[in-house]
Amino acid sequence: MNKTINQKAWFFVLPVIALVAFNAIIPLMTVVNYSVQETFGDNTFFWAGVIWFEDILHSERFHDSLMRQLTFTFTILLIEIPLGVIIALAMPRKGFWVPVCLILMSLPLLIPWNVVGAMWNIFALPDIGMLGRMINSLGIDYNFTRQIGDAWFTLILMDVWHWTSLVVLLAYAGLVSIPDAYYQAAKIDGAGSWAIFRFIQLPKMKRVLTIAVLLRFMDSFNIYTEPFVLTGGGPGNSTTLLSIDLVKIALGQFDLGPAAAMSLIYFLVILLLSWVFYTLMMRDEEQ
Q1: Distance CA 262, CA 58 (A)
Q2: What span, in angstroms and rounded, lies between the C-alpha atoms of 104 and 164?
Q3: pLDDT-based confidence at 1, cuts 50/70/90?
Q4: Degrees to nearest 5, angle at CA 172 with 224 and 88
Q5: Cα(284)–Cα(203) distance, rounded to whole angstroms?
Q6: Torsion (CA) 248, 252, 253, 256 in degrees, nearest 10
Q7: 220 half-sphere exposure, CB direction, 13 A CA radius
Q8: Cβ contact 121:239 at 8 Å
């Protein structure tokens, strides 16, 4: 019996393809175009080749921003992933408190990013902020607007407060999907809490934790609004992450060629590290 091949389904996909092309491919090609050209004004462009890529890759400014970005990203991952799992394990599975806990965990995620930065800026001010005054009252000289260590502490604390909830919700979703039969079998075998976590809960959370790590990595590597509102990249350039530095080059200095080249390098770094994360976390499962 011959099957009739119908290609009309592609008509349903064409609007999606057109939307993706408009929102992603066309802007990407525009950035690529700027990255290999030079302009001297009057909207006149000249071929520059890969000179901007060479300048960025050999720039000490780019290296410093990249190191600050990597430090920030890996620090918040080391804090938020374990902390999110611990909170998810402590949350109830049944009863009245389940929706209450879920709502409380969701609240930080609903606050706009610029509002989060403004909230923590006021909250951490050494003179009038609750956090700043409390730390100074303990005899600690705290001022995130002048001291580099305090600025980093406040920046990381703000991100942990804002985004740990995402890890909690994903980890909790993995935990509630575990059938009760697994726990009953573990109880019969006399397994302790650590054995249950290691051999039952953690393997069942592996996929959602992979998603959590990838989401938090990509989000933290692209973060801009919160640190810009909180510290403005200061004091000095101590909290100038890659995204802030890119905006300074593109809009502050209006160097379109270097900014375009830097954005493409930025994109490739995120793509490469995301692939490495995913490959390492899924390798055991494939075996």
Answers
A1: 12
A2: 12
A3: low
A4: 80
A5: 11
A6: 70
A7: 32
A8: no
Q: What is the DSSP string of 126-195?
A: TTT-HHHHHHHHTT----TTT-HHHHHHHHHHHHHHHHHHHHHHHHHHHHHTS-HHHHHHHHHTT--HHH
Rg (CA), the chain: 24
Domain map (residue ranges) of the chain: 60-286
d(CA 46, CA 50): 12
Please state the φ and ψ torsions of residue 4, each to the nearest 5 degrees: -90, 120
The CATH homologous superfamily to which domain 60-286 belongs is MetI-like (1.10.3720.10)
| Beta-strand pair 45-47/37-39 | antiparallel
Closest CA to 165 of 236, 106, 93: 106
What pLDDT is recorded for position 42? 66
Rounded CA separation 248/36 (Å):
20
Q: How far is CA 270 from CA 225, 265, 276, in A?
A: 18, 9, 10
Three-state DSSP state, 125: coil
What is the phi/psi pair of residue 137, to 5°? Answer: -70, -20
Cis peptide bond prior to 15, omega within 30° of 0:
no
Lowest mean per-residue pLDDT among 35-49, 148-162, 252-266: 35-49
Q: pLDDT tens across 147-177, in order?
A: 999 999 999 999 999 999 999 999 999 998 8
Give the integer Cα–Cα distance in Å for 91 and 87. 6
The conformational region for residue 56 under phi > 0 = left, psi -120 to 50 = alpha, else beta, is alpha
**Residue 180 backbone phi and psi in degrees, to 5:** -65, -25
